[in-house]
């Protein structure tokens, strides 16, 4: 079975009063869309992700979000249409076979969880169509244009629809095609399916699964994030070390940043000793061995590979073990060149891959005062200490 997520992220962010597009607005130092996509990236039942954005944003979304956060399941970024419904239709048409189920989710709902996606998919596999939602807590009144109540609806039957909404592919394509023919615009995808007689099953979403469209929503989202960060956690610490020899004709890459210098570092991958030491510290904290065990330098798959990709895999290994990185401190011992001008860019790269605030990545540099292999410019050595904590279940 193959399941593809379609994520419309097309809003211009006007209601947020921002000049940048909504999908780039940051929550905890990362674009909202990156938070959302990461949940889908980490959900095992999702095979592939299609992101739909305004045409003018395709390149920047690819670079600043998909590439920067190593979201490897995103195979396609397509241009959307005028309305959300048009954008979803564009996403549905971009799906290449084979695909059995489509998970449609708003790019600006970053608090979706893996469990929620799985629940909706399981329900759709029984019925063909499922919709996340929460039960109405307030009494709902229907009123005229002059605010006169025409009905009080039966609250126990009322749900407020959210996304994810999950459908069998043929069914939702048909629902969208019919809506287009009839020039019908619905406020969600389930309503298009309902119109053609499909029965849609409601599934528990969550109150926290908000759609961030106003400044108030953003403030609430930040409060949720603060609360999550403040929960008690079990802390573990790991130590990592790596060294690489200087070599002519190689690039000098540290922290995923290419540093202009006459010498580079020798190694099977890109020889990024900083990332390697950090990976070892993280794996050590998780009790998962070391980098050599997971990415052997005899494996041609890792030849000249960007070590940021290895870091993303280490993050996944931790995640599979129910752990997440919270803080890393590293000292790079290198006689020349100066590291300080590049430290911020390095921390940025690492923070993005690990999905932690950039303040949680500390990179310091030291010379070795001319002593030993570092001092004699034979190579570079890096020490790193990482803290990891048990991850949130939901
Ligand atoms: Mg190494």
Mean pLDDT: 92
Gross morphology is elongated
Give unreliable regions as ranges: none
Sheet with most strands: 7 strands, mixed
Cα-atom radius of gyration: 24 Å
List the helices and strands and how they pair.
Blueprint: E1 3-8, E2 26-27, E3 30-31, H1 32-42, E4 48-53, H2 58-67, E5 74-79, H3 84-93, E6 101-104, H4 114-127, E7 129-135, E8 141-143, E9 149-152, E10 159-168, H5 169-181, H6 189-195, E11 201-204, H7 215-230, E12 235-247, E13 253-254, E14 257-258, E15 264-265, H8 273-286, H9 291-294, H10 307-320, E16 323-333, H11 340-354, E17 361-366, H12 372-375, E18 379-390
Parallel strand pairs: 1-4, 1-6, 4-5, 7-11, 16-17
Antiparallel strand pairs: 2-3, 6-10, 7-10, 8-9, 12-15, 12-18, 13-14, 16-18
Magnesium ion (MG) is lined by residues 242, 244, 267, 273, 276.
Folded structure, characterized:
The longest helix has 16 residues, at 215-230. It is built from 12 helices and 18 strands. The model has no long low-confidence stretch (mean pLDDT 92). By secondary structure, the protein is of the alpha/beta class. The strands form 5 sheets. It has a 7-stranded mixed β-sheet with strand order 5-4-1-6-10-7-11, sandwiched between helices. The chain has a 5-stranded mixed β-sheet with strand order 15-12-18-16-17. The protein has a two-stranded antiparallel sheet with strand order 2-3. The two termini are 25 Å apart. Helix 5 packs across helix 6. The protein is elongated. The protein has helices at 32-42, 58-67, 84-93, 114-127, 169-181, 189-195, 215-230, 273-286, 291-294, 307-320, 340-354, 372-375; strands at 3-8, 26-27, 30-31, 48-53, 74-79, 101-104, 129-135, 141-143, 149-152, 159-168, 201-204, 235-247, 253-254, 257-258, 264-265, 323-333, 361-366, 379-390. The site of magnesium ion has 5 residues, from strand 12 and helix 8.
């Amino acid at each position: 079975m193959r399941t593809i997520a379609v994520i419309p992220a097309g809003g211009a962010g006007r209601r947020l009063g921002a000049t940048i597009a909504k999908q780039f607005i940051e929550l905890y130092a990362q674009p909202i869309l990156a938070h959302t996509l990461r949940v889908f990236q980490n959900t095992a039942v999702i095979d592939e992700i299609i992101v739909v954005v305004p045409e003018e944003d395709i390149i920047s979304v690819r670079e600043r979000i998909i590439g920067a956060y190593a979201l490897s399941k995103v195979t396609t970024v397509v241009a959307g249409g005028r309305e959300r419904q048009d954008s979803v239709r564009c996403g549905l048409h971009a799906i290449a076979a084979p695909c059995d189920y489509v998970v449609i989710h708003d790019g600006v709902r970053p608090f979706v969880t893996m469990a929620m996606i799985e629940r909706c998919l399981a329900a759709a596999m029984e019925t063909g169509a499922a919709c996340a939602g929460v039960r109405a807590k307030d009494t709902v009144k229907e009123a005229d244009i002059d605010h006169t109540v025409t009905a009080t609806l039966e609250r126990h039957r009322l749900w407020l629809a959210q996304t994810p909404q999950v459908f069998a592919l043929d069914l939702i394509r048909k629902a969208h095609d019919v809506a287009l023919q009839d020039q019908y615009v619905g406020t969600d995808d389930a309503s298009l399916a309902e119109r053609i007689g499909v029965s849609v099953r409601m599934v528990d979403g969550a109150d926290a699964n908000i759609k961030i469209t106003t400044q108030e929503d953003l403030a609430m989202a930040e409060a949720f994030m603060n609360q999550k960060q403040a929960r008690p956690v079990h802390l573990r610490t790991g130590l990592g070390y790596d060294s690489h020899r200087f070599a002519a004709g190689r690039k000098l890459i540290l922290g995923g940043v290419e540093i202009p210098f006459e010498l580079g570092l020798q190694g099977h991958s890109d020889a990024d000793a900083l990332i390697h030491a950090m990976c070892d510290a993280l794996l050590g904290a998780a009790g998962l061995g070391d980098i050599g065990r997971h990415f052997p330098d005899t494996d041609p798959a890792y030849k000249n590979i960007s070590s940021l990709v290895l870091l993303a895999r280490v993050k996944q290994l931790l995640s599979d073990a129910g752990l997440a990185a919270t803080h890393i401190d590293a000292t790079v011992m290198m006689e020349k060149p100066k590291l300080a001008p590049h430290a911020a860019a390095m921390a940025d790269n690492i923070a993005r891959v690990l999905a932690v605030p950039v303040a949680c990545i500390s990179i310091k540099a030291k010379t070795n005062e001319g002593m030993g292999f570092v001092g004699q410019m034979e190579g570079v050595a890096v020490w790193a200490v990482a803290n990891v904590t048990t991850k949130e279940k939901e």
